[in-house]
Amino acid sequence: MTVLGIETSCDETAAAVVTGDGRILANLVLSQLDEHRPYGGVVPEIAARSHLDHIDRLVEEAMAEAGLEFGALDGIAVTAGPGLIGGVFVGVMTAKAIALAWDLPFLAVNHLEGHALTARLGTDLAFPYLLLLVSGGHCQLLAVEGVGCYSRLGGTIDDAVGEAFDKTAKLLGLGYPGGPAVERAAADGDPAAFALPRPMIGRPGLDFSFSGLKTAVRHAAQAADLLDDPPGDAGNDAGRKADLAAAFQEAVGDILAERCGKALDLFRERYGKAGPLVVAGGVAANRHLRERLDGVARAAGSELMAPPPALCTDNAAMIAWAGVERLRLGLTDPLDFAARPRWPLEELRETPAPAKT
Ligand code: ATP
Ligand code: MG
Ligand code: FE
């Protein structure tokens, strides 16, 4: 089985070809970073236009790299939401056109399900597992019971983790995109140099909150006079900024670790097994956080499974793989499937036939 995947829901134009036995035959990601950098964030109209300009060529390149003609494919998978709707439309129309022209099954993939199932790509990870989904727009703990079967255990009541990284980077003038910039800066910093809060730790339930931490970072930066450097020029403040970045990352690590520890307990009660704990989404590329979560999983007698960093941030291999998983179960979609800007994972529960393994 071979599936072409297309991803255009944010600021990466991506096309990939993946096989049923988990081989990635092509995985092309075209980042729009340079186009959005002047604005310090993703501009939806620029993103949609750029996807339109590049997607056809990228799909052709992915097919050429895989050494396949469209007729050799078994299905076309595309991110059909959630995301910036203009970009999602570009991908969905492209995928529908190919599916129609070549009479191939069409698979409308939820972007979050792409992140959620990536850990199964090329591994023997079985259902159920505990998933910490941490990305630019999401922060959730879920029990993944099968393809299309997600049970939400907790989530953020305000900002997503990736958002907090991006805002911290912007505040400190560390550059864009924020996550990798904060991680780089933090590597040279002393996390104990600033005292930051750890919202929600010790509270009942499995929800998260990051807005208070974000505000605390702003106040600390103000107090230390770190705010007025021109972008990209940390000047004499580089050391203090590194300290604040490290303190922020450490606080996030503490929060994620505490919540995941509790979630592993709940998971064990509910499913009778110790995880495994899977982390996915762009923030899962962060090495410090991966180490922290690995420690938590081990302490609970479990293990952490984290996709390689390049498969954590947005890519099309994860969409093609989710397509493989759905196609195997016969979960194809009609060509009039409407793209969905908002599409929580739990709503996939409506789809039938959870996988047994
Ligand atoms: P979503 O998946 O919620 O729709 P998205 O697709 O825009 O959002 P992803 O590509 O999955 O997001 O993740 C991007 C986010 O991950 C950004 O907020 C980015 O700062 C963050 N990120 C990427 N690399 C790192 C890193 N090394 N450390 C921390 N955060 C990171
Ligand atoms: Mg992105
Ligand atoms: Fe994403």
TrEMBL record:
Pfam families: TsaD (PF00814)
EC number in record: 2.3.1.234
Subcellular location: Cytoplasm
Enzyme class of the recorded protein, top EC level: transferase
Cofactor, free-text remark: Binds 1 Fe(2+) ion per subunit.
Recorded catalytic activity of this chain's protein: L-threonylcarbamoyladenylate + adenosine(37) in tRNA = N(6)-L-threonylcarbamoyladenosine(37) in tRNA + AMP + H(+)
GO cellular component: cytoplasm
GO MF annotations in UniProt: iron ion binding; tRNA N(6)-L-threonylcarbamoyladenine synthase activity
Residue ranges of every copy of the Gcp-like domain listed in the record: 24-321
GO-annotated biological processes: tRNA threonylcarbamoyladenosine modification
Listed CDD domains: ASKHA_NBD_TsaD_bac (cd24133)
InterPro entries xrefs: ATPase_NBD, Gcp-like_dom, KAE1/TsaD, Peptidase_M22_CS, TsaD
Cofactor(s) of this protein: Fe(2+)
Keywords attached to this entry: Acyltransferase, Cytoplasm, Iron, Metal-binding, Transferase, tRNA processing
Annotated binding of substrate, by residue: 133-137, 166, 179, 183, 286
Residue numbers binding Fe cation: 111, 115, 314
Primary localization: cytoplasm
Family: Belongs to the KAE1 / TsaD family.
Purpose: Required for the formation of a threonylcarbamoyl group on adenosine at position 37 (t(6)A37) in tRNAs that read codons beginning with adenine. Is involved in the transfer of the threonylcarbamoyl moiety of threonylcarbamoyl-AMP (TC-AMP) to the N6 group of A37, together with TsaE and TsaB. TsaD likely plays a direct catalytic role in this reaction.
Name of this protein: tRNA N6-adenosine threonylcarbamoyltransferase
Gene behind the chain: tsaD
